[in-house]
């Protein structure tokens, strides 16, 4: 059972009575009915890739881990309706492949797509690199099938695009982290498949220039802009040092970088648009240097630099993580002010900001001092959080942009969330899970 009792960051280790692996939605519902009657806590788990401990049982040993990995069927793909229905244990990569086989496109893209599952993506309202163009998981779902705590199955499955008949129950369960019910299947939105893509990597002076570039690109590229990611030189050097097969794509180092992806529906359209865009950005003084991928392999190599950021930091040593969002126009101010306050409080710590600048979501991670003690550094987690989240609060931001709350940020949520909103959340929880068996200790 050990693989089901810890999470990827190794922050949480739990115990459990057993791991159950139902093979159907009806079996999930029957398990919940029995657990509800017995008062046995249930921890739902998909691919176990979550980063806030929401899928990990607590240390009491009283919980049952409910693994959804056997609910792995593609129930149907309707290309004409631009929809597909898949079970919760289907991996994101499998869902992408099923869409592609039908000449369609499912746009959610995460570094863990080979192992994370659709149920977990929904439970945490996963974001990823294409939120700028297509929204988060909440924007990509048409309906869900959910096993409730009392053993009933609720279904809003179907390709219906408009339904104004009361509360939006579908989206109530998206982002609920398994605390209101266990998602067993979902109907997902599909899109026409892009026929051309272009990926560019640009050297920048600072985050202010990155913001200017983002606004410039949005104005010129319009709906073809698929992603706009930023990373610092500090972060890139960690990747180059620790990740085999990576190389610096530009001739000279720069303090900051942007990775831009365009997607279009005509052959060669994205590549032509990207070449024109880079020339115009250079003429406008919005980038110091740039390279445009000339092949799929080169595009993947550029994306690897961005997607390896977390792995590289892990290999560097201790890293205190933050998944924050602020208004897009406040990102340069956030990075500058958070860095200034951290340098004052923890002079040797190394901020490594990177992420989805296009939608205001920055992963503001802080690596341990060079040669420092990992355990000692990680013991300051709450102190570093207080500095970073203090700036987030002042700028009207969120302490969790896409990873969720889980166990890691439960107490922070109580400190930062509107008390009335928390009361409403507790009331919903009490109505759907009166005995409190679903993921106790997570979120609330």
Task: Explain the overall architecture.
- 35% of the residues lie in helices and 21% in strands.
- It is of the alpha+beta class and 444 residues long.
- The strands form 4 sheets. Strands 11, 12, 13, 14, 15, 16, 17 and 18 form an 8-stranded antiparallel sheet that branches. A 5-stranded antiparallel sheet has the order 4-5-9-7-8.
- The longest helix is centred in the middle third of the chain and has 15 residues, at 207-221.
- It is globular and about 65 Å long.
- The model has no long low-confidence stretch (mean pLDDT 96).
Describe how the helices and strands are arranged:
Layout: E1 18-20, H1 25-38, E2 42-45, E3 64-67, E4 74-78, E5 83-87, H2 92-101, E6 104-105, H3 118-123, H4 131-134, E7 141-147, E8 153-155, H5 169-173, E9 182-189, E10 191-192, E11 196-204, H6 207-221, E12 225-232, H7 233-242, E13 256-264, H8 269-283, E14 289-292, H9 296-307, H10 309-316, E15 319-320, E16 323-325, H11 331-345, E17 350-356, E18 361-367, H12 374-378, H13 381-394, H14 410-416, H15 419-432
Parallel strand pairs: 1-3, 2-3
Antiparallel strand pairs: 4-5, 5-9, 6-10, 7-8, 7-9, 11-13, 11-14, 12-13, 12-17, 15-18, 16-18, 17-18
Q: Extract low-pLDDT stretches.
A: none
Compute the CA-based radius of gyration.
22 Å
Summarize model confidence as the mean pLDDT.
Answer: 96
Number of helices: 15
Global morphology? globular
> What structural class do helix, strand and pairing data support?
alpha+beta
Largest sheet: 8 strands, antiparallel
Spatial separation of the terminal alpha carbons:
26 Å
What share of the residues does DSSP label as strand, in percent?
15-25%
């Amino acid at each position: 059972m050990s693989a089901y009792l810890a999470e990827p960051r190794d922050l949480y280790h739990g115990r459990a009575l057993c791991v159950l692996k139902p093979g159907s939605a009806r079996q999930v519902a029957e398990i919940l009915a029995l657990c509800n009657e017995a008062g046995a806590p249930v921890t739902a788990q998909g691919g176990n890739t979550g980063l806030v401990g929401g899928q990990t049982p607590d240390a009491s040993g009283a919980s049952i881990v409910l693994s959804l990995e056997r609910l792995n069927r593609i129930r149907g793909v309707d290309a004409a309706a631009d929809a597909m229905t898949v079970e919760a244990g289907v991996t994101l990569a499998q869902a992408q492949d099923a869409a592609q086989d039908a000449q369609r496109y499912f746009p959610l893209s995460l570094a863990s797509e080979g192992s994370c599952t659709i149920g977990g993506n929904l439970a945490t309202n996963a974001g990823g690199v294409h939120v700028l163009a297509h929204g988060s998981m909440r924007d990509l779902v048409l309906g869900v099938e959910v096993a409730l705590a009392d053993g009933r199955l609720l279904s809003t499955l179907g390709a219906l695009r408009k339904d104004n008949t009361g509360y939006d129950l579908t989206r109530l369960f998206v982002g609920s982290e398994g605390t209101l019910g266990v998602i067993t299947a979902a109907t997902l939105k599909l899109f026409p498949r892009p026929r051309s893509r272009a990926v560019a990597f640009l050297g920048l002076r600072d985050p202010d220039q990155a913001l200017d570039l983002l606004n410039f690109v949005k104005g010129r590229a319009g709906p073809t802009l698929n992603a706009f990611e930023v990373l610092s030189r500090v972060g890139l050097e960690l990747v180059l040092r620790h990740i085999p097969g990576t190389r610096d794509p530009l001739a000279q180092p720069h303090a900051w970088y942007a990775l831009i992806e365009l997607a279009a529906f005509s052959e060669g359209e994205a590549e032509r648009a990207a070449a024109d865009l880079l020339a115009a950005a250079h003429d406008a003084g919005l980038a110091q240097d740039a390279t445009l991928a000339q092949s799929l392999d080169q595009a993947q190599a550029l994306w690897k630099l961005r997607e390896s950021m977390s792995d590289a930091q892990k290999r560097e040593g201790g890293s205190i993580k933050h998944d924050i969002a602020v208004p897009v126009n406040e990102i340069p101010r956030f990075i500058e002010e958070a860095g200034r306050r951290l340098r004052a409080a923890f002079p040797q710590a190394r901020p490594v900001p990177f992420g989805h600048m296009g939608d205001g979501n920055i992963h503001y991670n802080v690596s341990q001092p060079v040669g420092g003690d990992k355990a000692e550094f990680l013991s300051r987690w709450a102190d570093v959080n207080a500095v970073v989240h203090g700036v987030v609060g002042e700028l009207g931001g969120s302490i969790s942009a896409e990873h969720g709350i889980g166990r890691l940020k439960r107490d922070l949520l109580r400190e930062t969330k509107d008390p009335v909103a928390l009361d409403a959340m507790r009331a919903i929880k009490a109505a759907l899970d009166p005995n409190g068996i679903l993921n106790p200790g997570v979120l609330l």
